[in-house]
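Aim 2 progress update. The chain analyzed this quarter is reproduced below.
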Amino acid sequence: MQPDEKETAVSAAADDVPQTPDAQPEQESAHPDHKITGVLSWIMTMGITVAAVLLVCTFIARPGRVIGNSMQNTCHDGDFVILWELNYQPQHGDIVVVNSNNALGDNLIKRVIGVGGDHIVVSNGVVIRNGQRLQESYVKEQTWSGPNVDITVPKGQMFLMGDNRNHSADSRYIGTVSDNIIVGKVTVRLFPFNAIRTFQ
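Predicted structure tokens:
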């Protein structure tokens, strides 16, 4: 780069322009209206962004943090997850969060084992749904214990269990849970960053 040559070229081009005695150098002026418009545009953009985020978090999806160990080794204490809410209906195998309107009085994260109409039998560490034994590779310990259960899930209810069966307070203890208290389905784990994944 050669600054002196660049400045000379600009000066030379300026000398070629015919000068008139009455010619006055143009003055640049500041336009406050432009600054105000820029600020208003920024405010509008931020407002739309905030409204969009609130809309998504209210009706479509929301963030959540896992508290406790009942879903190990699928989810761990402190995991940051995204919950899908829009038009969600519980399906077998989904991981869901329900609000505190349950027998334990706390928000719970569990796996959907049964939905309305399912016949669930839990006996000696085995889960049978509608006569078929479940193959549960997600369970932390393949040998687990707890209360035996034989129940037909009422319509509009779910039978939930944690993956850490030996350390999970779930439908074996508190019974079925209403679909109406579902906060959302866990669809993505965003944190920790080395364990990011999606859930079907």
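The chain has three helices and twelve strands. The longest helix spans residues 32-60. These observations will guide the mutagenesis experiments scheduled for the next reporting period.
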